[in-house]
Structure formats: C-alpha cells, structure tokens
C-alpha cells in the first residue's frame, strides 16, 4: 500500500517523485521501458535552463541517479489496467499495487504513416529514433519524414553520421523554429524534399529497399519517421477519466475529473509540450497531493 503511485519515469514523473519524497510520501514509480522515458531517444537537449547541450540518455541518467540517491522505489513493469475507486488499484503484467493517490505521467509515443510493411520492418529499415539506430546506417543514405522540430533536429544529427539524408515534408514549409531551419540548411548532405508524401515502403526479397514518393523512388537504407506523437493512455480504457483526443484533461492543480487521480507531462491536453513545463507540471501535481 502506497501513498502515491506514479506511472511513468520521464522527466515529469521523476520531478513529481522528487517532490513527493521530500513531502514524506511513500511513493512507487512504474515504468514500462527505461528510466527517463523518451529522453533516451533524444540526441541533444539544449533548451533546458542550466543545461548546455547534454544528450538525452545522459540527462535521463542524471534524473535516474536522483531517484536512487533518494531511495525511491521503482519497478520496470508495464501497466495494463487501473481501477479508480477511493482506493486506487494499478495492475501490471506481473503484480497488483494499491495507493491513495495516482499520478499518470506516461507521455507520448510516435505516430506512424499507416503504410503496409511499416510495422513489419520496424528496426529493419524503419525507425522512430535516430539516436538509437543512426549508427547502424553510417555512411549510408537515409530518409526522414516530418516537418516539425524533431524531424529537423534529428536530420541534422543523422547528417553527421550518414552519407546523405533526404528530409521529406508534405507541405511547402516546416513548422519548426528559424534557428533549426538555418542549421538544417548548413548541412550540405541534407536534401530537402517538400510537397511530397511517402506513399509506399518498397520491399524486395523480404528486405527493405527504400520508399516511393509522389514522383520518385528513393533507394535508402532506412526511413526515420517523425510525424508527431499520440498519448500513452490505452490502459485507461474502461475508466471514466475525461480525455480529449486521447489526452488526459486536468484542472489547474493537474487533477483529473476523478478525485485523487492526477496527470502531468506530455500525456495531458495542453498547448506547449516541452521538457521544462513537463517537469513543472509533475512538481505542481505532487505538491498539491502533498497538501491533502
């Protein structure tokens, strides 16, 4: 029995845990993959105050070290179901846990194009993580699809490893910052292809061979997909938590429509999705829980 269970060990969940521990709460953290969450898939972080150009995995390790230094209990288990009565019940593949309060900080996961062979060749020519898989394609030609900050920054990262990077976007302009766009244009081995879509994943002899656009074929070794994200809220199916396009709706205290259930970070409905506000939201939610 815990005072608080936090689902998710990204920056928001870890921030919440630190404040909960300082408030004297008995806390359990649950994480499906690795401590740090999506931080482990970010090549470089240069937009967090006081931190100058740190890799995502290094930042994740710093946060994880804080958890260990505070002797906070955590378990790497996938949450499959929650029962949100007065006593909160959290079920994982292996165990069942109970707490008075619950904080959901499960973040988001990548969207896919929805094309045939996409899932079949994930990790074998299709990727959503340049940091994880970029080194596998050293001195080879690759493609990136997407028009946001992640697509541009990861294209720059890949350009330092790969022979050539094709950056594909279906619109006439990117939705990223001018700074990133200027940095992108400095890379001579990045070819920008606008007003184009990836229409087909080419597979020959059961091997990924490239992609087909509106008007051309690209024989690339890998396609990196950065077309946005969707919240990790599947385990909430069957609950009465209010969602908006699968994002959790919270009030100013980061409490959901169900008493004692809070949410923070990229899993909630909001206007800005940045590390700095994800950390702040976790802290605020935890502080509010500590006042009860």
Description:
Strands 1, 2, 3, 4, 5, 6 and 19 form a 7-stranded mixed sheet that branches. This protein starts with a strand and ends with a helix. α1 (11-22) runs parallel beside α2 (56-69), α1 (11-22) runs parallel beside α6 (275-290) and α4 (149-159) runs parallel beside α5 (178-185). Helix content is 22%, strand content 28%. The model has no long low-confidence stretch (mean pLDDT 95). By secondary structure, the chain is of the alpha/beta class. The chain has helices spanning 11-22, 56-69, 130-133, 149-159, 178-185, 275-290, and strands spanning 2-7, 27-30, 73-75, 79-84, 88-92, 96-104, 108-110, 126-127, 141-145, 164-169, 190-194, 200-204, 207-212, 217-218, 222-225, 229-231, 243-244, 247-248, 261-263. It has 2 domains: 2-109 and 230-290, FAD/NAD(P)-binding domain, CATH 3.50.50.60; 112-225, 3-Layer(bba) Sandwich (FAD/NAD(P)-binding domain), CATH 3.50.50.
